[in-house]
């Protein structure tokens, strides 16, 4: 049974990441009435200097794509001790295509960030998101609204798709 645990976890994580990366234009929800989240989160979430000096707690390989997840030792310890993920936590996902760094996804949690957003904008607790190009510049072409949608299904895990990997690190 233990031999199957890692492949099953890897498959679940890969499927979750695939769902996050799908651009589904067939969504019939009333999103047109919501403000574009890119207007506020792009001002708040900055590129995390030295994120790669943190804990590389998960790696996922899917075809020619490899994803490396980083966060702080404090965040890992809080999760492992059954405590909430602390305010100030930054989770960074390096996305490599054909072994070349193509994107860097960043999610950051700050107390009160969810309350700062206008009521008609998407929110995932106090988490906000940002997408950077491989050169660390902001990717203004990325639809940040997809991040909110993808992570919304992980509310029970504080909107973090890799919470189990943190627990088991």
Q: Which keywords apply here?
A:
single chain; about 30% helix; 5 strands; about 170 residues; five-stranded antiparallel beta sheet; about 25% strand; alpha+beta; Chalcone isomerase
What order do the helices and strands come in, and which of them pair?
Elements: H1 2-21, H2 38-44, E1 55-62, E2 65-71, H3 73-80, E3 90-97, E4 100-109, H4 113-116, E5 127-133, H5 145-152, H6 163-168
Antiparallel strand pairs: 1-2, 2-3, 3-4, 4-5
Helix pairs in contact: 1-5
Model description:
It contains six helices and five strands; from the N terminus they run ααββαββαβαα. It has 169 residues and is an alpha+beta fold. It has a single domain, classed as Chalcone isomerase (3-Layer(bba) Sandwich), CATH 3.50.70. Helix 1 packs antiparallel against helix 5. The longest helix is centred in the first third of the chain and has 20 residues. It is globular, with a radius of gyration of 16 Å.
Biggest pleated sheet: 5 strands, antiparallel
Which blocks of ≥5 consecutive residues have pLDDT under 50?
22-35
Count of strand segments: 5
Quaternary form: single chain
Q: Name the shape in a single word.
A: globular
């Amino acid at each position: 049974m233990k031999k199957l645990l890692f492949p099953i976890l890897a498959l679940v994580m890969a499927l979750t990441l695939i769902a996050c990366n799908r651009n589904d234009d067939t969504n019939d929800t009333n999103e047109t009435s919501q403000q574009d989240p890119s207007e506020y989160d792009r001002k708040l979430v900055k590129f995390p200097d030295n994120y790669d000096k943190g804990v590389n707690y998960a790696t996922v390989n899917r075809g020619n794509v490899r994803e490396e997840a980083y966060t702080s030792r404090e965040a890992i310890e809080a999760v492992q001790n059954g405590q909430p993920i602390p305010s100030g936590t930054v989770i960074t996902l390096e996305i490599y295509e054909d072994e070349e760094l193509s994107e860097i996804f960043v999610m950051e949690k700050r107390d009160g960030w969810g309350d700062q957003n206008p009521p008609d904008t998407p929110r995932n607790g106090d988490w906000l998101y940002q997408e950077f190009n491989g050169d660390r510049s902001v990717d203004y072409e990325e639809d940040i609204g997809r991040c909110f949608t993808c992570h919304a299904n992980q509310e029970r895990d504080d909107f973090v798709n890799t919470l189990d990997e943190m627990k088991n690190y």
